[in-house]
Here is the input.
Amino acid sequence: MDYAEAKAKIVEELTKKLKTKSKFYFNDLADILGLKPREAKKLINDMVADGTLEYWSSGSTSMYGLKGTGKQAAAEHEA
Amino acid sequence: MAKHPTPLLDQLESGPWPSFVSDLKELAEHRAKTASKIEYQIPVEVVDDILGLLELTYKDGCTHWKHGGIVGVFGYGGGVIGRYCDQPEKFPGVAHFHTMRVNQPGGKFYKTEYLRQLCDLWDFRGSGITNMHGSTGDIIFLGTTTPQLEEIFYELTHKLNQDLGGSGSNLRTPSDCIGQARCEWACYDTQDLCYQLTMDYQDELHRPAFPYKMKFKFDGCPNCCVASIARADFSFIGTWRDDIKINQEAVQAYIGGELKPNAGEHSGRDWGKFDIQKEVIRLCPTQCMWMEGKKLMIDNKECNRCMHCLNVMPRALRIGDDRGLSILVGAKAPILDGAQMGSLLVPFIKVEPPYDEIKEIIEKIWDWWMEEGKNRERLGELIKRQGFQKLLEVTGIQPDPRHVKEPRSNPYIFWKEEEVEGGWTRDINEFRKHHLR
Ligand code: HEM
Ligand code: HEM
Ligand code: SF4
Ligand code: SF4
Here is the structure.
């Protein structure tokens, strides 16, 4: 799968789910791409690097979301 | 004068022990006094406000921190743990109070000069509150604001040659004992292996793609000074497979009282004359030691290298010469499921740079866990759920009596086709020759 295709898939699926949730586990993203975790990781890293996705973490668990959506963005702007 | 009254916290100063409340008060005062001289980059009252907020937490009986948030600096998915206060108007100094994890040096060796540089940086751009060291091993910087994160990271990496550690669903900062640098019991170079794996697994450390946290800890011997066996997904514990080296003269010197047992560690009180039967031989967990006249004997094939006798008589007993390490997997603290100690996977492996053999085992297990692990499932829980046998399969390790923890309680044996000679398939024509329809 090439990068543009992977990115389109991720953006589409996560946008669809935005109403109910904004943070996803790494494996949810790997499932959307239908790839093994190690193969998905490269693509997902690149999506973070180019600002499509951003990380969120509780401190112990990490999640991914579309940049600027959900809880973290809110917390950053509130302060 | 304290910014917030803290009657509940003040009680914590009344006991005989050093108190973090006193430390924080001292720091708060120091910041207030030096505010005119140092251009503090985050609110001067950060420490006052942490005290005030903690007091309020005690009063309300619930936390005033929101959960989670920002995770790192650009390009990193860990190393920063975002914390935001839910009472920012009352406590503006801790509206942001992010933790930074600084990857501690191997064996936690550093010069005072380096510590001063770290502390100067943190006083200037953070709260000044540190934790040396967190359970992870890292040097913990407690409390700064979002805009300071990149600045601190720049200073750390460009001036102090210092990286951030791990947090979240990634490889946590690998942590090791002081090992061969100071300790005669070290069976391998913990610092070299720890450093090498830290460097080789940078992507795993900084970009979270695991189901949950993943910890490596390196102990040079079974004394387990970094407690790898109790808290690391991978515990690398030094061991040897030949004989304990015995110096019989030194054994006699312990018996005669010329040498102090445990290097004099328990000399604060008079325990009476050293009794080798009572203090060593009868405490050997495998009962593999005895005296033959004046000679101490050890049946080495029964010894499980618990370290007790070596700890008591360090001058008389030494680790063997054929050294390596054991790999145990799956230890964890009780977050989702109960606490677990590590299970022995590799009884003995030589420790030789570039450590390819060790890395091969790690990577096979990662592949399995990344694919099969549920979200927030630690390796130890996956091993429990799918079975130790599955772990042996994915690593290609042959079952060994040393893997056995207890006699089986399940009487059923399920064979797999490849384990059965001839397999499952049969030739139907051949079968019909002997069996009528
Ligand atoms: C009663 C209060 C608290 C309790 C009982 C508590 C307990 C714990 C425990 C058991 C851990 C895991 C330690 C380890 O395995 O390394 C932890 C981690 C942590 N705590 Fe707390 N904590 C408390 C309050 C706080 C507060 C107020 C903050 C910050 C404002 C905080 C920040 C953290 C961070 C950043 C970690 C590390 C997360 C990680 O392992 O990735 N904690 N805490
Ligand atoms: C290697 C050959 C065989 C194996 C592994 C085997 C295995 C079993 C097992 C596991 C059970 C269930 C036991 C239980 O419910 O506690 C069972 C029950 C039974 N087997 Fe076999 N069996 C074999 C051969 C045979 C043969 C050749 C016959 C008859 C010609 C037979 C007749 C029965 C009967 C009647 C029961 C029911 C017993 C009861 O419910 O009390 N088995 N067998
Ligand atoms: S774990 Fe063993 S080798 Fe490492 S410092 Fe402790 S006693 Fe020494
Ligand atoms: S190391 Fe432990 S098991 Fe081995 S001989 Fe000494 S006391 Fe016994």
